[in-house]
TrEMBL record:
<dbReference type="InterPro" id="IPR043502">
    <property type="entry name" value="DNA/RNA_pol_sf"/>
</dbReference>
<feature type="domain" description="Reverse transcriptase Ty1/copia-type">
    <location>
        <begin position="32"/>
        <end position="129"/>
    </location>
</feature>
<protein>
    <recommendedName>
        <fullName>Reverse transcriptase Ty1/copia-type domain-containing protein</fullName>
    </recommendedName>
</protein>
<dbReference type="GO" id="GO:0071897">
    <property type="term" value="P:DNA biosynthetic process"/>
</dbReference>
<dbReference type="Pfam" id="PF07727">
    <property type="entry name" value="RVT_2"/>
</dbReference>
<dbReference type="InterPro" id="IPR013103">
    <property type="entry name" value="RVT_2"/>
</dbReference>
Amino acid sequence: MLCQAFLQDIDVDIYMKQPELYEQGPQKIGMKRSKSDPCVYFNVDKNIYIAVWVDDLILLTSNKVERNKIKNKLMQYLEMKDLGKASRCVGLNITRDGDTIMIDQGKYIRDVLTKFGMSDCKPCKTPIEVGLKFTQSAEDEEMDYPYQQAIGCLLYIAQGTRPDISFAVNTLRFNKEPRAEHWTAVKRVMRYLQETKDMKLTYTKDGESNMRGFCDVDWASNNIDRKSRTGYVFISQGGAVSWCSRRQQTVALSTAEAEYMAMSSAAQEALWLRQLHVEFGQPLAGPLHIFSGNQSAIKLSTNYCYLPRSKHIDIRYHFLREHVNNLEIKFNYCRGDKMIADIFTKGTTEHKNLYCIAKMGLRSGVVVRNRPQP
């Protein structure tokens, strides 16, 4: 951790010019900045990776000798404090148990529940009701709730370690004129977090190392503008590593078109993840498999023929055909009852919610490993 950092704005303009032949800091200590993620520095040959967040740094390596060298070099140029083995960073708790790594935001969730008077609330099993829809009705009076603060806190949790609340939080986007029904739904998300606050996003050494993705869509689900919702998740080493729930930008005329647009979004994320693996010296073997629930959309991703019902689809969504043809991405069919990305596009039953969170690596804090029998 840096002991001094400029974290606040100043009221004057500062102009700086780097001197000629000035050696870049990361290069000086033998590190390279990632082109895919500018907050990550790495040295593939020495198996060292550094993640930076403002004044917090996490150094990852299995080489203890090189780890000490890098730490000493950093401390020569910057005033830093070594906090030892990483256990907490930017609100995330990090736990290691043998070949398992778990991250969670249990403490932050408890603080949020206390902040909004929900620490003793009645728990519930799902973050949002099945089939819940919001409308722009003027009948309900606008209420004075700390709505934006609550959504900000929930978004941080959803983006950090809790993909299971992403759909619910992104659905509650009425920051301009929140009403009583919206606040009730926010409290339901908090009641769900009360039930699951000890859940940890878990990655295991013996988990499936071949990254795979799942994408889904809820066609015309928005009652206001009839736009569809895209959802996807990528899983590696038994846990979710990237996920998204967002409203599509244009109105789709069919489920196949909406799914095709969702597949395009998932493909963009897949290409970025492939780039990260290549940079870190661990390129994926073969295409990255993405599972979709619409066979018509899958066929459309490989069909270059003129089709009257899809001729109007924006060319920006057709880029995935090139990457499918280059064997960088491969789309496969997945049955609806096995579709993990359902949790990012719609409210689900308790049974489906439990299935999805288990497949994404969300577990309770207790990890039971198979041990040899005496």
